[in-house]
Amino acid sequence: MTEQSKAQTLAEKIISRAANVVSVSPGELITCKVDNVLMHDSSGPRRVKERLESLNAKVFDPNKIILVSDHFVPATDAESAEILALTRRWAKDNNISNFYDMQGICHVMMAEKGHLLPGNFLVGGDSHSPTGGAFGCFMVGIGATEMTGVLATGEIWIKVPETIRVNWHGTLSVGVSSKDIMLFLCKKLGVNNNYKVIEFTGTAIDQMNMLERMVLCNMTAELGAKTGVIAPDSSTIAAIETAGKVFEGNIEDWQSDSDAIYFAEYNFDASELKPQIAAPHSPENTNDVDSFENVHVDQAYIGACTGAKLTDLHMAAKVLKGNKVADGTRLLVAPASAKTTNQAASDGTLEILTEAGAIILPTGCGACAGMGAGAIANGEVCISSTSRNFKGRMGSPNSEVYLGSPYSVAAAAIAGKIADPREYL
Amino acid sequence: MTFNSEQKGSAWVYGNNIDTDILAPGPYMKKPMAELAKHCFEAIDTDFAVQVKTGDVVVGGEAFGIGSSREQAAQALVELGVSTVIAKSFARIFYRNALNLGLPALVCNDADKISKGDQISVQPEQGVIINHSKNEQYKCEAIPPQLMEIVRAGGLMPFLQNKNNK
What we know:
A: Aconitase, domain 3; B: about 170 residues; alpha/beta; 7 helices; about 30% helix; globular; metal-binding (chain A); Acnase/IPM_dHydase_lsu_aba_1/3 (chain A); EC 4.2.1.33 (chain A); 3-isopropylmalate dehydratase activity (chain A); iron (chain A)
């Protein structure tokens, strides 16, 4: 086999391109140039500004930095307001052309604004940065000190990861979504898949829209993986065009070779999957919804980068239409972006949600990150369409968070307890 | 504090999947580090932040530091004077964050042989953990010399500043 013809996975192809080499092998330490960088208000300017100054460094390219305020929005106190003010000043001082202030959650903004193009290598100052993999990108989360290094140089070293292929054939049943796939995988593969890439393939993935594919890659963070990837297809290109951008490459270049070597391969039948619920305090504590009888919920929360995009609101509306939120339970909905709110308003979805009794919150990371509206009290139980149910994440350390799809959260809101959404569809 | 391999510290021992929200709880993320650090581990151990002493060692199981990219998860430990984190495995972002903040993170299969309060010292470059209380030695994955340079400097920032000043 010649160097040129070495079979590679999609992730290996992207890393090779970013490192400007013909091919890479798992375990290799290699330096890559980044195509774009994502930062938000929590781990961004407030954490890198002084560090950059201490190095006497400027950002490598202000046009390749996407900055989003989403964690402390809207400000609920003087400290949050100060963090946001600092973020805005830094964006201005550094000529950041792609600054989205209170327009939506960073991972959703990346897709809406067309900053994710197949074959790109990106880093983000947020652990859910693997979301970008849905567009055929290799995108990883990093901390603020590393981010400072990337901002100064436009480069980062990585260890080339092995790839695990997860193939979902068949078609998901009514009332079952990509969130159920990911909760199931958290149980099946565990949360310790360090230094691995998860590549999703199969008919069930091909059939998904981009918003649903984003959930898969996003929650590879919950698998403990380095990132997730999905090879681009016509849906990917259509989404990029909707965002007003043009992909000038060839999607054929960004597919895993048929003889590429995988660390492991799993095959699942999507049609057999039931709605999944993760019990506190880890996404790995997942089971079929029918094993959670009579779990009362005080709060049902539809929010965050994995759980409040337009598709998610549509799922909730299907369940909630003509129903009412149960007494003793509250339903909070924080759409994932301003555009999502607009779309849900114009297509009648918001009306269905509010008629059922949902309270609509501003867009942002909010309760999911434990930083905004929707926090829960001592002893309270929340069912959430978000991605994480760590102890104390959404408020009191003595509260409990269950995770489910937007279908399942909506069903629990009506029933006042965890319920099978298929009974309402 | 910069790393010192002569130092002994008491072990604080926790289980698997210690996540970043346990280390740096979301509700305190807007507070200054000194304030945030007071809430480190509070969801599972309210004694830790009050009683931990400079030089002490935190010991976990699998997937230590899983979750958010928030660097404060590692920084809170540094703020409280923790000298080393030992675990069976680390979440990758936490691992990189720890080293970049000057906190040695040691991958050790025998992490569960360490009990709370054991006196521990470590030699990260040699890949050795010494349990003085039990008179035992454990092998761990050595931290590569180029990364130990960063750790010894007190993290990536002081490392780069020193470089700039030379």
